[in-house]
Amino acid sequence: MIEDIIGNVKEFLDQLFMQIKILGIDITPFELDHICYRTSSEEEYQTKKLLILNYAKLLVESDVNGRLISTFKLNSSIRYNDRQIFLLELPAPKKGISYKSGLEHIELVIQDNFDIFMKKYPKIEWNIESINKKLNPEIKIKLENDLSVKFHHLSLKEVIEREKSEISLLMT
Fold first, then answer.
1. Binning pLDDT at 50, 70 and 90, where does residue 156 land?
2. Fewer CB under 10 Å: which end of the chain, C or N?
């Protein structure tokens, strides 16, 4: 099972969803795009990547800001309540930054404009450092126990398709 590699997904999502609920955010209408397992070393990244391939297909491995990030489509979706999660993100650590290994964040696809969405929750401390990214800007909330939730407008699958399309255009 994939959980033998990445840990107890239900426990991770229970904890994360409880923290989001306490903040008063209703995420039921949003697509739970993917979950992220953070690695603490390059060696762990390479090992986890090979192990995950027993349960998933590698969609893409890209260099993002000087470190590799792999995205996998799981052979069997992770089921959580009424949701199915098909994608798993596995980033290598950024050089010079220490990370704890484990399930770290989820990403949700929203339709609202970021300003409108954030104004619905004025008491939340929003991290907007990636709000002006060229492809798929996002906003983020840091939660307890090194967890976080990110909100964006495109699914990771759509982002990958756009990136591949751009690459093939450059090659023609």
1. confident
2. C
> Which amino acid is residue 75, in one-letter code?
N
Q: CA-CA distances (angstroms) from residue 21 to 17, 27, 109?
A: 6, 8, 17
Section 35-51 average pLDDT: 96
Candidates 28, 35, 27, 33; CA nearest to 10 is 35
Bridge partners (DSSP) listed for residue 63 = 68
Q: In this structure, are residues 109 and 152 in contact, taking their beta carbons and an 8 Å threshold?
A: yes
* The CATH number of the domain covering residues in 3-171: 3.10.180.10
Radius of gyration of the CA atoms of the chain, in A: 16
Q: What is the pLDDT of residue 170?
A: 53
Beta strands (DSSP E) in the chain are 31-38, 56-64, 67-80, 83-91, 102-109, 138-142, 148-152
- 95-119 pLDDT, tens per residue? 888 789 999 999 999 999 999 999 9
The Cα 52–Cα 74 span in angstroms is 9
- Comparing C-alpha atoms, which of 80, 74, 39 is closest to residue 55? 74
Burial of 141 (0-12, 13-18, 19+ CB in 10 A): buried
In this structure, the number of other CB atoms found within 10 A of the CB of residue 28 comes to 8
pLDDT class of 166 with cuts at 50, 70, 90: low
